[in-house]
Amino acid sequence: MSEAPTLDAVRHNTGPSRRFCVAPMMDWTTPHFRYLARILSKRALLYTEMVTTGALIHGDTERFLRHDPSEYPLALQLGGSDPGELAHCAKLAEQFGFDEVNLNVGCPSDRVQNNMIGACLMGHPDKVAEAVAAMIAATDLPVTVKHRIGINGRESWDELCEFIDKVSAAGCRTFIVHARIAILEGLSPKENRDIPPLKYDWVYRLKERYPHLEIIINGGIKTFEECHEHLRHTDGVMLGREAYHNPWLLAGVDTEFFGEPAPVANRHEALRAMFPFIQQELDRGVYLTHISRHIMGLFHGMPGGRQFRRHISENAHKHGSGLEVIQAALARVRMPEPATVAES
Ligand SMILES: Cc1cc2nc3c(=O)[nH]c(=O)nc-3n(C[C@H](O)[C@H](O)[C@H](O)COP(=O)(O)O)c2cc1C
């Protein structure tokens, strides 16, 4: 049976709402995408791309942790396994203003496996527990873990529970569970996001077995209807690819899951709200393509959406391209009709 939460776990009971989260995604959930996501939803909890402890400690720390204050609530995801290094990076997360620090125990890439980062750590629950304890001791931020339901060769229910038992005993009270195993040899990271079957019922069972823990479900979720169904069994949902490819979905989150007004009325307004930030980034030397590729999904499925994307693809990479490319692309999609005022 699971143990009662420790005092430390209770101390870490605070933090942002995780009812609706946008998943950490390398090269995708960059500061530019997150800026757009935050225009669309004030309440979704955003996660950074994974940053390894090695990169943070030995690389350009400021660059890796750079974000705009408007992105809050924002969680920093770390990749690593050395308790001392993770503790140091958790402290950095706090100093730089993040709202949560998350440990990646789900990434299956070979590159990270060789460094004992990511999903391979599911085979070493004691090591994860030690790392989490060190992080908790180093920061007042909530420390959370994102993981799979198993890895090949270690995919039983009992082994999953052993992982949760040990890591929760170390003080972690929030587990973000990608509802499939990772196969560590023979599948690419992309295949590992599609091929192992989703087992949502395992995540539901975790919540039943550990009611005192916060369990967030992830993997293959696309619609609000699906989110509501998962929320009947878990504490929160995390969406990755759908939120990136169809970011307008985020514009409904505040109303649908928090009962608050939507921050923007339409896609045009959302993109225009990004213009000052785009200009600021261009002024500091960022290439337009590094920003524009993250707004390509905004008119997904809309009349004119294809022309919008084509204009950006054909022009953003040209030397000296600026905000005018985005403005011209926007002009290719028709403004929605203003809503008719209901007669009283
Ligand atoms: C391009 C890409 C990059 C990803 N990078 C990370 C990462 O850095 N850290 C992580 O924990 N998961 C990463 N993931 C996995 C997602 O966070 C998520 O668990 C997975 O995509 C399943 O959720 P979804 O079906 O809603 O996309 C990545 C996924 C994609 C598509």
UniProtKB/TrEMBL annotation:
Cofactor(s) the protein requires to work: FMN
Annotated binding of FMN, by residue: 24-26, 77, 146, 178, 218-220, 240-241
Top-level taxonomic group: Bacteria
Signal peptide span: none
Active site as annotated: 107
Residue stretches making up the DUS-like FMN-binding domain: 22-329
Pfam families noted in UniProt: Dus
InterPro entries for the chain: Aldolase_TIM, DUS-like_FMN-bd, DUS_fam, DusA, tRNA_hU_synthase_CS
Record keywords: Flavoprotein, FMN, NADP, Nucleotide-binding, Oxidoreductase, RNA-binding, tRNA processing, tRNA-binding
Marked site positions, Interacts with tRNA: 104, 190, 193, 306, 309
HAMAP family referenced in this protein's UniProt entry, alphabetically: DusA_subfam (MF_02041)
Family: Belongs to the dus family.
Function, in words: Catalyzes the synthesis of 5,6-dihydrouridine (D), a modified base found in the D-loop of most tRNAs, via the reduction of the C5-C6 double bond in target uridines. Specifically modifies U20 and U20a in tRNAs.
Name used for this protein in its record: tRNA-dihydrouridine(20/20a) synthase
UniProt source species: Marinobacter pelagius
